[in-house]
Write a structure and sequence with these properties.
The complex is a heterodimer.
Chain A lengths: L1 H16 L6 H22 L9 E9 L4 E7 L1 H22 L6 H20 L3 H22 L4 H29 L8 H5 L5 H18 L9 H7 L2 H26 L1 H5 L3 H21 L4 H21 L3 H32 L10 H4 L1 H14 L6 H16 L1 H25 L16 H19 L2 H22 L1
Antiparallel strand pairs in A: 1-2
Chain B lengths: L1 H19 L5 H18 L7 E2 L4 E2 L2 H20 L10 H20 L3 H19 L6 H32 L4 H10 L5 H17 L8 H8 L2 H26 L4 H24 L4 H22 L2 H32 L15 H15 L5 H14 L5 H24 L12 H19 L2 H4 L3
Antiparallel strand pairs in B: 1-2
Helix pairs in contact in B: 1-2, 1-4, 2-3, 3-4, 3-10, 3-13, 3-17, 4-5, 4-10, 5-6, 5-10, 6-8, 6-9, 9-10, 9-12, 10-12, 10-13, 11-12, 11-16, 12-13, 12-15, 12-16, 13-14, 13-15, 13-17, 14-16, 14-17, 15-17
The chains are: A mainly alpha, B mainly alpha.
């Protein structure tokens, strides 16, 4: 029931917003997203940790002739991502509220429709439904980036759309193939696809169909080329949705679809080492790219790619630790990516520039801002006691279990991360004043109302991650149990 | 059967309206008449004895469903193309021609005898030849009509020859009797081979499948925009329904004869249609090529050669027709203001025309086959029915085609968000109505696909 509410609320409000004009849309959108947050937190609090199966299940037939059901539910993994979505969207709407956008009712409508798609992806228990929501989530973000994007929006959004859509078509082909292997009458439920006894040969080619779809979405090297442009060019709320939540869709797909359905593809062949190496290359590549960026937003875009690359590597290590770490880190990265992009957008709004060499001396005029930025940055580079640490530690431990050398190389990313983050902070926030620094003023109360809760979340998750891990671990164990079965 | 009678009477009423001088309201009468016809069609569902006129036509559930698709499309088309009936002088002629083309289309989806198929095709085609040339003073309209007529009669020649060969072999025009003959004849004779080949060519002309598509872009571009819309919806629906019925009923047991050829035709049509559409700079011509590529997808149903294929075809033709009518309504509204249909004319319309933009986005997304809109399920059902008996090769080709098609469908959307024009395109009341109905149907068919497809 609660899952259905989580899904229906943003859909209905989102659609109605298209028809409402004026400033009330801001309040309505915010109200809806807060209600959604309440639902998300309730789901989290009432979650039965002992039960490894999907909870809050809704299952009604949708397309009977094809064995497709409107089947929703949440296990621990879904729950964490739904929680992340419901936490971030109100913040994103608050951020959007601070600025005037042309056609604002459309913007808020699209943000809520995006939330609808994301919650759908994270809760779908039917593979066809999963695919539908996967595409539904793509359409609003495409239009957000297309309508409110920067100068190069047309070319960039086009590339982004074609890229991700090509990937998801491959996934669709893979899902239909698996669907036709189910016993007659065919059935699209994810559980039915888990139960298939596929041969090793089949698993190893279906693996690539799924992998490409998810790799493009995450993105994993060498499918990352859409990322930096899209993140940089999209309007701030769009960037936050993309890097905060949408990049998790790919990882989630890998955990929910790729690993349990075709684990043989990973296990006894070259594919496993190949994909984990690609992920690690991506981590290092993105970190190095971040070091050489002059544009602050672009730098954070690459840092986001590096973090998601590490999450991917953790997932592909197929260890308990790696997978748990990946899920914690998805949550933590969502929070810190949102924070970082917000900090940069404030910087750009007031000074009119994001170029590192034009900025400087911000700390002198805005100490609170500088401190908040510092804390969020620490969370991003995984300082102990911040949210970033738990996940990153588990991820590296997981990769270490898989292979020491890869872990060593991936571990470099934390050092590189500290280098590019601190260096850019030093040049933009610290140092001497420049021509633009006097335009800057410290955070006003509305902005503080956004960042302070964020900081609280960062520390709470960093100091006491147990509630999250308690939910995650049984679900991860369950994924491994399923893999044991499907491997045979 | 009653539908056929009503439609023909409406046609004659159209002629009478000229004489009895009520031609000013004939357009409205036609719309009301079609609504009545739609209601009557629905009552013919699950008809216990579907055969009429000495087995010339059969209104089984499949025919009824296709008839309904054609009439729904016809109603939307009449609503969307009021401007086509603007000139006082020819309003009755044009309405009559449109109504008779619907009669032809209904014959084509309900025939049970090859002569009836031929008559249907001719009734439909002759009306459309005239309609294509209905802008008498416009050279390109004349060219379009002439080209369509020459190519069409050529195709009819093939078709008739094919029918003659099949008759030569089986000694019957009745599709069930041909089926019995085909199932029992131990060996294919040359007559059957040649007949099936000629019929394939003739019908491929009609649905504009590659390599028999050369007439389509020029004809579509030259004809008045509303006639183009009629050609790419109703004509295509009727032709593919006829194609499907003939090949899966009569030649269903002879798959070895036609399947390889048709597989190639379908694959090439999807790829060529989509690739050429990418290079078009005119929205009307782009839709013409996209229509060609859709003919390729439709052929998948014929190749599927099963009941699910028929169901998928009904769903697909409805989804495709609605989206196409919406797209053409948008294009003709823009053309009314800007005078042409180049992509350039769409620049900057995204800012101030919410309904126009939403309609364009949804129809393009649906045509490109992106969920959750109707077009996606249409493609999905077609693919699924095809995969019941066949391998994935052609499906992969079709998926690649879909990926290419996203490029040009999105180009139209993207163009609307380029530039800073603040221009407002005024829509007529009926155009608005068509757009809204189209949007609602496209979404509703996507949300509850079972509504259309699960019924039988």
């Amino acid at each position: 029931m609660i899952t259905t509410l989580l899904l229906v609320l943003p859909l209905i409000v989102g659609i109605s917003l298209f028809f409402i004009k004026g400033n009330s849309v801001k309040t309505i959108a915010l109200g809806a997203s807060v209600a959604e947050l309440v639902l998300g937190v309730t789901a989290f609090l009432q979650f039965d940790k002992a039960n490894v199966n999907a909870q809050y299940v809704t299952n009604i037939p949708w397309i009977k002739s094809m064995g497709i059901n409107f089947h929703l539910g949440m296990d621990g993994i879904s729950l964490i991502l739904v929680l992340l979505t419901t936490v971030l969207v109100p913040f994103i709407i608050l951020v959007a509220n601070r600025k005037e956008y042309a056609n604002q009712s459309t913007l808020y409508a699209l943000i809520l429709l995006m939330q609808f798609g994301l919650v759908g992806v994270f809760t779908a228990q039917d593979a066809f439904l999963f695919y539908i929501f996967w595409e539904v989530a793509l359409i609003p973000i495409y239009f957000i980036a297309l309508i409110w994007g920067g100068a190069e929006k047309i070319r960039i959004t086009f590339k982004f759309f074609i890229y991700t859509l090509a990937g998801s078509l491959l996934m669709l082909a893979g899902l239909i193939y698996l669907y036709l292997q189910t016993p007659v009458p065919h059935n699209f439920s994810i559980q039915a696809l888990y139960d298939l006894q596929l041969t090793k040969g089949t698993q190893s080619w279906v693996f690539w169909l799924f992998f490409l779809a998810f790799a493009i979405k995450m993105p994993v090297f060498p499918f990352h080329s859409w990322l930096a442009d899209t993140y940089t060019d999209a309007p701030t709320p769009g960037t936050m949705l993309l890097s905060g939540i949408m990049s998790k869709m790919g990882v989630y797909g890998a955990i929910r679809i790729l690993l349990p359905m075709v684990p043989q593809g990973m296990h006894e062949s070259l594919w496993g080492p190949t994909v984990i190496t690609l992920a690690v290359i991506g981590v290092i590549y993105a970190s190095l790219m971040a070091m050489y960026q002059k544009d602050y937003k672009r730098l954070i875009a690459y840092s986001s790619a590096a973090h998601v690359g590490l999450i991917a590597a953790g997932v592909f290590s197929i260890t308990d630790t790696g997978l748990s770490g990946a899920i914690v880190q998805m949550f933590a990265h969502g929070i810190s990516a949102f924070g970082l992009f917000y900090m940069v957008s404030i910087l750009e709004e007031r000074t009119g520039t994001r170029q590192l060499d034009q900025l400087g001396g911000i700390r002198i005029v805005a100490p609170v801002y500088a401190t908040v930025f510092m804390i969020i940055m620490m969370a991003s580079i995984a300082l102990p006691l911040t949210s970033g640490f738990v996940g990153e530690f588990l991820l590296l431990a997981g990769i270490y279990e898989y292979n020491e050398w890869l872990a060593g190389i991936a571990g470099l990313s934390t050092i590189l991360g500290a280098v590019y983050m601190l260096r850019s902070y030093q040049s933009a926030i610290l140092g001497d004043k420049t021509a633009v620094s006097d335009k800057f003023f410290d955070l006003v109360w509305q902005e503080k109302a956004i960042v302070f809760p964020l900081i609280i979340i960062i520390f709470v998750v960093g100091v006491y991650p147990k509630p999250l891990l308690d939910v995650i671990e049984p679900a991860v164990k369950n994924i491994f149990t399923i893999m044991e079965v499907t491997k045979k | 059967m009653k539908t056929l009678v009503i439609l023909s009477s409406l046609g004659f009423l159209g002629i009478l309206s000229e004489i009895l001088n009520f031609k000013k309201i004939i357009h409205k009468i036609a719309i009301v008449g079609l609504l009545v016809a739609l209601g009557i069609t629905v009552t013919e569902w699950d008809n216990p004895i579907p055969m009429y006129f000495y087995n010339m036509v059969s209104f089984d559930n499949q025919s009824v469903a296709f008839t309904a698709v054609i009439i729904i499309t016809g109603i939307l088309w009449l609503l969307s193309s009021i401007s086509f009936f603007d000139d006082e002088q020819h309003i009755a002629d044009k309405t009559t021609l449109v109504l008779f083309s619907l009669v032809g289309a209904v014959c084509m989806v309900s025939y049970h005898n090859l002569t009836m198929l031929f008559i249907g095709i001719e009734i439909l085609s002759i009306c459309i030849y005239v309609l294509a040339g209905s802008k008498k003073s416009d050279l390109s309209s004349n060219e379009s009509a002439m080209k369509y007529f020459l190519m069409g009669s050529f195709a009819t020649g093939f078709l008739l020859m094919g029918i003659a060969f099949i008759y030569g072999a089986s000694a019957s025009f009745d599709i069930e009797e041909i089926k019995t003959y085909m199932e029992n004849s131990p060996k294919n004779t040359e007559l059957v081979y040649t007949g099936i080949l000629l019929l394939t060519i003739g019908l491929s002309f009609k649905i504009s499948a590659v390599p028999f598509h050369f007439w389509a872009p020029d004809v579509y571009e030259g004809a008045p925009i509303q006639v183009t819309s009629l050609m790419s919806t109703i004509v295509k629906t009727a032709a593919i329904a006829a194609f499907f019925k003939l090949f899966t009923t009569s030649f269903g047991s002879q798959t070895g004869t036609w399947e390889p050829t048709l597989t190639w035709i379908a694959g090439i049509t999807v790829i060529a249609g989509n690739i050429i559409a990418v290079f078009q700079s005119n929205a009307k011509r782009m839709l013409a090529y996209s229509g060609i590529s859709h003919a390729g997808y439709l052929l998948l149903a014929v190749l599927a050669n099963n009941e699910n294929g028929g169901n998928a075809l009904i769903y697909y033709t409805l989804a495709y027709s609605i989206s196409t009518i919406v797209a053409f309504t948008v294009i003709s509204s823009v053309a009314n203001v800007k005078g042409n249909t180049d992509f350039e004319s769409f620049k900057g319309l995204g800012k101030k025309n919410p309904l126009l933009v939403v309609a364009t986005i949804i129809s393009m997304l649906s045509l490109a086959g992106i969920p959750p809109f109707a077009g996606f399920f249409g493609k999905y059902f077609l693919f699924e029915s095809y995969l019941e008996k066949h391998g994935v090769e052609l499906i992969i080709v079709a998926l690649v085609g879909s990926a290419i098609s996203i490029y040009y469908y999105f180009r139209l959307i993207v163009t609307m968000f380029k530039g800073d024009s603040e221009e407002i395109i005024t829509l007529t009341l009926t155009a608005k109505l068509v757009l809204i109905i189209g949007i609602i149907l496209t979404i509703a068919m996507g949300i509850c696909p079972d509504m259309i497809k699960g019924g039988w």
